[in-house]
């Protein structure tokens, strides 16, 4: 039996992540990109894929799932469109507000939703290690140091904040430091320190393709699932 491919909308198409998603989508079985949306439009059709400006979002053709890697100001309209169209919503946009997190929870009553600050398998595992370490190291200092390229807008990074939530679940009280330098794709160091000893857990992303591939797999697996709030580890 053959199943129809998941019709995918890519939101934030002209960005670093959007370009990686468009380049890698062809390698991912079971999906077809039907629309690419970016803030301002250049060419109408690129490699056979229709492109739309953000203002044209309400008129995009039918789709089953959207992947959003844009900016907080682009996030609300695409989430609302997915809820209205009954499409799955996958987002990696960081720096979103508490109200936008609440909008994700509200939408998850109607559609399958996955928001993640990081789509790499390595960070999903690091998250679990940090929670376990924090629970075992009562009273130790916990510091999270993140480094990214100079174009990154939010700080601390969404991944640092998620790792901090994991540390807090284990009982630690994390502090944050952010570095912006060169073209660093993403590095996260979680340090636990006490008198006379120190543990360092580090994740280094050297290529943003890992995030794009994770999001593409997630979109294929999320489309058609029951409404709800999903996590990366539920799908990868
Ligand atoms: P970028 O600045 O290179 O690209 C942003 C894209 O969003 C552009 O295509 C722009 O046209 C589009 N956009 C902005 N405002 C818009 C609007 N109002 N309507 C429609 N489109 C709009 O950014 P990037 O490096 O590609 O990162 C995008 C987001 O993804 C950031 O929030 C970043 O922190 C996050 N990110 C997440 C992960 C993860 O694994 N979750 C990994 C890397 C980056």
From TrEMBL:
Pfam families: DapB_C, DapB_N. It catalyses: (S)-2,3,4,5-tetrahydrodipicolinate + NAD(+) + H2O = (2S,4S)-4-hydroxy-2,3,4,5-tetrahydrodipicolinate + NADH + H(+); (S)-2,3,4,5-tetrahydrodipicolinate + NADP(+) + H2O = (2S,4S)-4-hydroxy-2,3,4,5-tetrahydrodipicolinate + NADPH + H(+). Catalyzes the conversion of 4-hydroxy-tetrahydrodipicolinate (HTPA) to tetrahydrodipicolinate. CDD domains: DHDPR_N. This is 4-hydroxy-tetrahydrodipicolinate reductase. Residues 6-119 form the Dihydrodipicolinate reductase N-terminal domain. Belongs to the DapB family. Its EC number is 1.17.1.8. It comes from Luteimonas composti. NADP(+) binds at residue 40.
């Amino acid at each position: 039996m053959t199943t129809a491919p998941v019709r995918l909308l890519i939101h934030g198409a002209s960005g670093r992540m959007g370009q990686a998603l468009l380049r890698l989508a062809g390698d991912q079985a079971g999906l077809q990109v039907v629309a690419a949306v970016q803030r301002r439009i250049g060419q109408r059709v690129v490699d056979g894929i229709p492109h739309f400006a953000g203002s044209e979002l309400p008129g995009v053709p039918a789709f089953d799932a959207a992947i959003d890697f844009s900016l907080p100001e682009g996030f609300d309209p695409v989430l609302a469109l997915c809820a209205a169209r009954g499409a799955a919503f996958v987002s990696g946009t960081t720096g979103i507000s508490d109200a936008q997190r609440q909008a994700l929870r509200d939408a998850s009553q109607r559609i399958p939703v996955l928001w993640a600050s990081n789509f790499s398998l390595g960070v999903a595992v690091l998250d679990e290690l940090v929670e376990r370490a924090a629970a075992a190291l009562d009273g130790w200092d916990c510091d999270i140091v993140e480094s990214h390229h100079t174009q990154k807008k939010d700080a601390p990074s969404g991944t640092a904040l998620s790792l901090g939530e994991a540390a807090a679940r284990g009982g630690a009280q994390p502090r944050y430091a952010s570095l912006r330098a060169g073209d660093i794709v993403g590095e996260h160091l979680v340090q636990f320190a006490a008198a006379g000893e120190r543990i360092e857990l580090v994740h280094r992303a050297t290529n943003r393709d890992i995030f794009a591939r994770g999001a593409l797999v997630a979109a294929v697996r999320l489309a058609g699932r029951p409404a709800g709030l999903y996590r990366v580890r539920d799908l990868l």
